[in-house]
């Protein structure tokens, strides 16, 4: 019962977040909407920035070696820690990509099918962890991802937000 309540809570939270960000997102030909939020403002992206940010974000996710999905190598995080990290990402500076149809990423830690990707929070020289909402509505956390891709993603976000 407790697990079902948690899943329902995550589903409701996700739906609210999707609808609350729809008016300020960029959409490209990949049937997704991308939101870059910095200092409580949604950054308007060019088509090129949207495409590159989406690619870097997906590459960052794919570089992860562990996840909490129950398949492949596991990162040892409890549900409270994952939920807290996800909420902190959404409240802080973050990248959020919502896909119209579920997509599958072949991560180093196994294959993941999802409809939403959130990366954050980020500040100064660091970028936070990736989180996804699976095609089944589960919140999945990730661990041990590429430091080089994290730096590249953060640098690209910085170039967008400093112009």
TrEMBL record:
Keywords: Signal. Residues 1-26 form the signal peptide. PROSITE patterns: PROKAR_LIPOPROTEIN. This is Uncharacterized protein. It comes from Lentisphaera profundi.
């Amino acid at each position: 019962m407790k697990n079902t309540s948690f899943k329902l809570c995550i589903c409701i939270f996700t739906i609210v977040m999707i609808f609350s960000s729809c008016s300020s997102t960029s959409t490209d030909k990949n049937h997704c909407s991308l939101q870059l939020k910095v200092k409580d403002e949604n950054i308007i992206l060019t088509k090129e920035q949207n495409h590159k940010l989406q690619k870097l974000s997906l590459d960052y996710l794919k570089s992860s070696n562990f996840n909490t999905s129950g398949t492949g190598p596991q990162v040892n995080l409890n549900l409270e820690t994952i939920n807290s990290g996800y909420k902190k990402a959404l409240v802080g500076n973050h990248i959020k990509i919502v896909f119209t149809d579920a997509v599958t990423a072949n991560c180093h830690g196994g294959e993941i099918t999802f409809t939403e990707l959130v990366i954050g929070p980020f500040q100064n020289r660091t970028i936070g962890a990736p989180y996804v909402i699976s095609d089944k509505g589960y919140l999945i956390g990730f661990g041990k991802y590429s430091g080089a891709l994290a730096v590249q993603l953060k640098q690209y976000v910085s170039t967008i937000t400093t112009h």
